[in-house]
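Before surveying the methods themselves, it helps to consider a single example record, giving the amino acid sequence and backbone structure tokens:
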Amino acid sequence: MAHTNQIIYNPENKQQIEFLQTAKDTNGAMLEMISTYGPFSTRPPSHYHPYQSEDFLVMEGELTVQLGRGIKTLKKGDAIHISQNEPHAMWNNGSEKAVINWKVQPALDTEYMFENACNIAIKNIHNKRKTTIIQKIMLARKYKNMFRLAKPSYSLQQIIFWLITPLTLKADFDRITYSD
């Protein structure tokens, strides 16, 4: 369970998140974080949030932002608002770390999505493997109210999730049954 001042780190995308205000702190209205992207962090897939908006303020370094088909670089002091359903992606394309104040409204279960993604990445790094497509699909399916890929269409994503359900159920069973 996320809490104020908790810090999590995802070694796969080189992103650290410090929770400043959690859903519990704001009665679900907002999740506020400090996100630190390591140099040349991984570019995430273009995605959108069907029920949430986001606000970003660059506090240090530079943040590369893809909005639709356009790409721009935000520098210290720059801010951007991302409306719900607006496809976007953000990463650090520079050689210095980027530190961002990041607010998500409403919070929903976003902090748990980040915790789960980080835990999967840490476990996989420990086991010397990358996060599998099945693990990513399981996360996307579980947190579909907070995160959806911009492509393929959400309808097609639902069909794909349905088709691979037997594989994800086996992955769940394997994770529960066997320990490392």
Remarks:
- The chain has a mean pLDDT of 85.
